[in-house]
Amino acid sequence: MPDTVTLLAGVPDTNRTLFHQIRFAVGDAAAYLGNLPPEGKSLLIIRDLEMQRARAHAQADQVACPADFSPAGGLSGDRDVATAQAVVELLTQRGVKQVKTDRSLPFLFAAKLLQAGIEVNLDDDLGVKSRRVKSADEIAALEHAQQITGQVMTKACRWIATADVDSQGQLLQEGQILTSERVRRQITSWLIDLGFANPHDSIVASLPHVADCHHKGTGPIRTGCPVVVDIFPLDTESHYNGDCTRTVVHGTASEEFIRMHAAVQAAKQAAIDALKPGTTGDAVHQATVASLAEHGYRYVPASEERELETPVMNHGTGHGIGLDVHEPILLSTDGEEILAGEVFTVEPGLYSSVHGGVRIEDMVHVTADGPVTLSPLYEGYDWLEVE
Length: 387
Description:
By secondary structure, this protein is α+β, with helices and mostly antiparallel strands. It is built from nine helices and 23 strands. The chain has a six-stranded mixed beta sheet, with helices on both faces. A three-stranded antiparallel beta sheet has the order 7-8-9, with no helix packed on it. Strands 11-12-14 form a three-stranded antiparallel beta sheet, with helices on one face.
């Protein structure tokens, strides 16, 4: 549908596809219309108070407000409804009979368009492929986000590694028990000081909860027990995300954990080596699975039953990342073809309710010349000497 008007709508602060198109953040409803007749130009409908700023910074040929396209019966006092009404009125005035849109279009807009007799067509690729291949500016934003994430990761792992120990083996910092919750709160505080938000919190998980790879962790942290720390913050200036996981052990690690850690390190490198344009997310994941098998460990899909005591990997190798922490495509079973310019997390892991968990995660840029790890960080589990 090359001649069809393109419609993206929602709140740019939370609708990342809309933000990616207009490069303008605002907390009220907005609508972007591309290829508008008769000139084929783009137009952004936004709250009147934001028009001046949008004209200076938003990526659109023209900027208007809902009042510029008020229907005969007037606009609703509800800003979201008024924006949808203005879109319908504009398209009606221009004689537009159909639009193409992406998967994030609010149903409010679709309903108003359909009520007006305007056909709404979903383009599955709209706002997906355009976000997969990153520009040089996006790579710089992601690298900065990952650099800050690494700084905070180092602080968190060192805080755990340098803790004191009470008579019950619980870790202490400043005389207080070091819990998963306390470390997560401190991570958020460090991130805020560096201009980052932590909207999804972090993971600081130890035994036995780490057997569930996405358990956030709870309760006291103990010496000798592996702790998986996963930090995935948002840069409040660029709106791009970091995502990094490391594992730390206070005191002496068990022999089984050391074997697990070595296996995960090798699997991560195997996956990174496989990240090439033209291969698939499935192939990268299979490289991870094969490497783990060489070290005596298995991949068991999350849909299958498993013994929590036995160390296994039960998730994909990674995912796309950008304006959202999780973006297409997946480095997992049936993962699609990989494009030059994409950025992925690579994060193999092993998890056991007895031996603990290991996950090591980095952000990798796929280039024609080979994979590039953005802001590399220490991968070991003894963080005492890491600065």
